[in-house]
Design a protein that fits this description.
Blueprint: E1 11-14, H1 18-29, E2 35-39, E3 54-55, H2 62-76, H3 78-82, E4 89-90, E5 93-96, H4 100-115, E6 121-123, H5 125-131, E7 143-146, E8 150-151, H6 154-167, E9 171-174, E10 178-184, E11 187-193, E12 196-199, E13 203-205, H7 211-218, E14 225-234, E15 247-250, E16 255-260, E17 263-268, H8 283-296, E18 305-315, E19 322-328, E20 331-340, H9 345-362
Parallel strand pairs: 1-2, 1-13, 2-9, 5-15, 13-20
Antiparallel strand pairs: 3-8, 4-8, 5-7, 6-7, 10-11, 11-12, 14-17, 14-18, 15-16, 16-17, 19-20
Helix pairs in contact: 1-6, 1-9, 2-9
Length: 401
């Protein structure tokens, strides 16, 4: 196997987050002898280590459900496959309804999810209360529920994929910037980096929040935006023991929660915030939204906060992944693949990585239908021709301000 100073590779993956790292691992597992991972910083330094770790198969579209089921199974079997896991816990996840219209929509969604093989069911309001002892009684009109949804531990996930990369002999090049493609005609023959050019006929762009920047480097418009997402963890409290705290997603306010260190971890995104990079915690928005949190889980209004953080995550206006060839004004570039989980790195990351590896190796995949998931689904204003996945954080409607 070629060493880290080699200037040739079977594939180059740009990005050392969840999507890029697992994609490189899948490529090596498929038999490529020399796979290079480039990261301008260090592995997992971006959103992957600052995520909330939610793993949900209760998507609002068939694509979301298929990706979610695949990832849930991947995490469940990860130890047997790699010798280390990402700390996946099957906690169970509720998607509540607060109006008659939401109840009807939930039943339609459940029918679609069950048809795809997901273990999901409708739970009546009194059952929701009984299964959620921490929830304010009578808060919902019922909820969909999947007992197999859960969460991973983000720092452990970074550790797990780093160990997997090293075990597979993958050439990790940290603090190395991707600076462009080398092409002959409409085909990739190399990747330019800050440390020199690597000859290769496969390049996967999995740069997370840098996707638009990477697109500009290669002459492609990739309408993947970036926006702040915030997480808070309450102080520990007996009412918030993991046995009393299934996962919960309040779509009305765009907040979700799960157990963490004896307290409650909850995440939030401000739909009014302009797209852009930020890792500072917005205490004013936190104060405005925590009242809703206290309405739903009253004990959180009486206890303190143990820790908070914010991360910049990527998103697409339709809340769906981007998977397909790099396309410039001259058409697609053979051998260059785009892979973005649109901010769902823990939830969809391994599946998106598997699809990207399939596309890089064979130009097709049987995991999901990627026909409409490329960048050609967006118009010149960044608007998608696809209907948005309705079970998603309240991201901005446009990828740029």
């Amino acid at each position: 196997m070629a060493g880290p100073s080699s200037h040739t590779a079977d594939a180059v993956v740009v990005g050392g987050g969840t999507v890029g790292a697992w994609c490189a691992w899948f490529l090596a597992r498929e038999g490529l002898e020399h796979v290079v991972v480039l990261d301008e910083d260090t592995l997992g330094r971006g959103a992957s280590s600052r995520a909330a770790g939610m793993v949900r198969a209760q998507g609002g579209t068939e694509i979301g459900v298929r990706l979610g089921i695949w990832c849930r199974d991947f995490y469940s079997q990860q130890y047997e496959t790699t010798g280390i896991d990402s700390g996946f816990v099957k906690q169970g996840y509720f998607m509540p309804a607060f109006s008659a219209a939401e109840v009807a929509t939930a039943h339609e969604r459940i029918a679609m999810q069950q048809r795809l093989g997901l273990d999901v069911r409708w739970v009546e309001p009194d059952q929701v209360d009984a299964m959620n002892p921490s929830l304010a009684p009578g808060s919902t009109m019922g909820a969909s529920y999947s007992p197999t949804d859960g969460y991973v531990d983000p720092p452990r996930n970074v550790l797990a994929y780093t160990a997997a990369l090293l075990g597979a002999g993958i050439d990790i090049r940290e603090r190395t910037r991707f600076t462009g493609l080398v092409t002959e005609g409409a085909r990739v023959v190399g990747a330019k980096t800050s440390a020199g050019t690597i000859s290769t006929d496969r390049v996967v762009l999995a740069g997370g929040t840098r996707m638009a920047d990477l697109g500009a480097i290669v002459g492609a418009r990739i309408p993947v935006g970036r926006v702040r997402h915030q997480v808070a963890v309450t102080s520990p409290h007996p009412d918030l023991a993991a046995s009393r705290l299934p996962m919960f997603f309040d779509l009305v306010s765009g907040i979700y929660w799960r157990p963490e260190e004896g307290g409650l971890l909850w995440g939030m995104s401000n739909p009014e915030e302009s797209p852009g990079r930020s890792t500072g915690f917005d205490w004013a928005y936190y104060e405005s939204i925590r009242r809703r949190m206290a309405e739903l889980v009253p004990v959180t209004g009486r206890i303190g906060v143990a820790k908070t953080w914010a991360a910049t995550i990527e998103f697409t206006p339709d809340h769906l992944p981007v998977l397909g060839p790099v396309r410039t004004s001259d058409g697609p570039i053979a051998g260059a693949t785009i892979a973005s989980a649109c901010g769902h790195g823990m939830m969809w990351g391994p599946a998106v990585s598997r699809v990207a590896a399939d596309l890089a190796l064979r130009g097709s995949t049987d995991l999901v239908d990627v026909t409409d998931l490329g960048i050609d689904r967006f118009d010149s204003e960044g608007r998608s021709k696809l209907a948005a996945d309705p079970i998603a954080l309240p991201f901005p409607e446009r990828a740029t301000a």
